[in-house]
Request: fold
Amino acid sequence: MKNPPTPPQRASLNEHLYSQAKASDELRHLILHIAQAAKYIQYAIRTTEAGLAGSKNQFGEEQEKLDVLSDVIIQQHLMESRLVATFITEERKESVELSASAPFSVVFDPLDGSSLVDANFSIGSIFGIYPGSAILGRKPKEQVAALYVLYGPRTILVYGAGNGVHMFLLNDVGEFVLLREYLGIGDSAKNYSPGNLRAVNENPGYKKAVADWLDRELTLRYSGCMVADIHHILCKGQGIFTNVGGSKYPEGKLRLIFECGPFAYLVEQAGGVASDGKSAILDKTMDTIDQRSPLVIGSSEEVENACAVLAG
Ligand code: AHG
Ligand code: MN
Ligand code: MN
Reply:
């Protein structure tokens, strides 16, 4: 072309998936359908009255109205994509089969940190994408992409699809536009984010790890929403987030399939590490939908150090 039109100043999510991630058309379309769902969720968060739905999820946890609504919005967009064979959501006991011949399966936590919504803290949605129709029996390292959306003062989408981790901002006309690409996580941490802190009294290793962070005067950054807390690590390029076991939650609070798995994929793509204290999260087999796993994630040296302290 002689005088090609000037491209927009900031790449859209679609353009980035196409030119940087070099994602297949099918994967690109699936991620765009998920991004579309996130726009409806952020609208629902702004306009729906906060409060309990009067029902419980598979873990016996009270569902917020917004948990249920977000779950429905995502399911509708996955169905509309015609690209999803099976999905597993935090809000259902069983996996759902849509179309056996479709290319991908999706795991998701529709709204993470939803109990914080009435306090107007940041909350998020988490997604992992697998090839094929099975999820159970596989490992998080088999994901072809993972992404999360953080609904805070600004709505941010972060995705990885095999070529780095990239961050987008939802603009006023409803487009996700590139903010930063190839996010990186350094080896040492200045910030710590200790989840399930109630466990320190029953878990002497965790007590020691926390004492060590206090001693070394690391800075606490903990909101109670893992999407916001791990986003902080990806954004600042350093930090450690933990959620390990005690008596109430022997394996910690977080679910392997839709919380630990997608974040392990993204953090490792950015140069960080994700462990359960002993082995890599990416190598753990997902046996059941309700499987929990301890999580130690972030800057590699700090994760290594914390795992050693936790092991006693
Ligand atoms: P969800 O809202 O999907 O149930 O998940 C909340 C999770 C996670 O986001 C957070 O890190 C953890 O629960 C908080 O647990 P503690 O407050 O016990 O540390
Ligand atoms: Mn969650
Ligand atoms: Mn949730």
